[in-house]
Amino acid sequence: MYYGIKLKSAPSIAQFEFIIKNDGNIDAIVSDIKVNGIEQYKNNIDVSFTDLNIGDVIKHDTFILVKVVTSYNTQLYDDLLFPQEINLDNIEIDIELDKVE
Question: At a CB cut-off of 8 Å and minimum separation 6, what does 85 contact?
Fold first, then answer.
């Protein structure tokens, strides 16, 4: 999943929700969660999730509602010491699932 966001100043937060549905006939386990596209601002922003952790099991034929929270925690300043906006237009959330053994 990809999303873009503009954060005007610290502290600011943006959040949205999405659904992960297991339409299969076996249970799945969350084996990894990666967030790409924020590397340049890794000291300034944080991306966190509610109701989604590595090791969580998503039963077959069910779904979970996940909230993504993107927060601008540490203010960036330009050369003239004016606060900078952070404009991220290509954040990727990569959630890897494996079958439950």
Answer: 6, 7, 8, 9
Based on its alpha-carbon atoms, the radius of gyration of the chain, rounded to whole angstroms, reads: 16
Distance, in Å, from the CA atom of 21 to the CA atom of 32, rounded to the nearest integer, reads 17
Determine the Cα–Cα distance for residues 54 and 17; give it in Å rounded to an integer.
Answer: 18
pTM greater than the 0.85 cutoff: no
- Residue 72 CA to residue 86 CA, distance in Å, equals 8
Q: What's the rounded Cα separation, in Å, for the pair 6 and 85?
A: 7
Consecutive sets of 10 residues in the chain, 101 residues long: mean pLDDT of each? Answer: 90 93 94 95 94 95 95 91 90 94 82
